[in-house]
Amino acid sequence: MFKSKYFETFRTTAVILIALVIAFLIIALVSDNPVKTIGIFLFEPLNSKGHIGNVIEMAIPLMFTGLAVSLLFRANMFNLGAEGVFYFSGVVASAIAIHWSLGGFLHPVVAILAGSIVGAILSAIPGILKAKWNANELVTSLMFNNILFGIGLYLLNYQLRDAKAFANVSFKFEKTALLDKIIPGTRIHTGLIIVLVLIVLAHFFLYKTKWGYELRMTGANRSFARYSGMKTAKVIILVHLLAGFIAGMGGSVEVLGMYTRFQWTALPGYGLDGALVAMLAKNNPLSVIGSALFLAYIRIGADLMARLSDVPAEMISIIQAVIILLISAEQFLKFWKNRMLLKEAREA
């Protein structure tokens, strides 16, 4: 018998299964060979070392942004500014990777720290507006995404662009700025180690420190936390600083680990994807790992399916939409949870 404390795990699993079943039904309707197509979608990402590497490579930025957004959501801050911070911090790290010359491991460290600090400062602006004037953090963060994208694109076009290249890309990074690959035959880089360490530290911060407790209490009931003596305004600013630092580090790590030039002429989408990762993880830092890997897995599976079968990769958007709808629907399976709670109450 399932206990109520396992309800959210069961609910998330049910959401994923429902989304996959709907995807399989769509494949069966549009594909000439649905069994083969479903097999490609489910198993091809594990078919080679390179494909497994692709899954992990895609999961790294999702872990960064998923962790950043999960901290914000845990504080009940519906902030989606990780998208703009991720992009702009990548621009900052790229500028240092191009124009600075530092030896050894110092070059990527300085570039990543610069991007992270800039990310924290930028993310703090919506936090201050929320803490001091109760400005809607969703609106301000979405506005900042467009502002940061516009400024970043301007810097790319007029400060970093390589006029000799046949595309809108920056000059090449100095080789000393690039992150090392840690698994031969793949592009998996040291950013994987960095994000895993960050996740463990975030878990410790959230559940083992006074500041983490205040963050969780502020998210649960800001008025109660304030009446209990907690300085909720400082908590809100702190969580925005932390989230911006993590998202900024993610953008910096991604450009230095996966590219030799800065070439994002549009927002990469990882910040908004981070919200989906956080929702699947139920804002638990450790669960971000599995959520990011799952999302990366189905995306790589969809990409391979599009290349090897007659079903387009856009099918993955349906899975994501169903997951978002059901995860965000508070009433989904709530009747079952109520039945479990009543049964446990009678047995107690």
Automatic annotation (TrEMBL):
- Protein topology in the membrane: Multi-pass membrane protein
InterPro entries registered for this protein in UniProt: ABC_transp_permease
Q: Which keywords label this protein? A: Cell membrane, Membrane, Transmembrane, Transmembrane helix
A single GO molecular function term of this UniProt record: transmembrane transporter activity
> GO terms for CC?
plasma membrane
Under Pfam families, the record lists: BPD_transp_2
Highest taxon of the lineage: Bacteria
Compartments where found: Cell membrane
Please tell me where this protein is predominantly located: membrane
Q: Does the keyword Membrane apply?
A: yes
Q: What is the name of this protein?
A: ABC transporter permease
Q: Which residues cross the membrane?
A: 12-31, 51-73, 85-102, 108-129, 138-156, 188-207, 235-256, 315-333
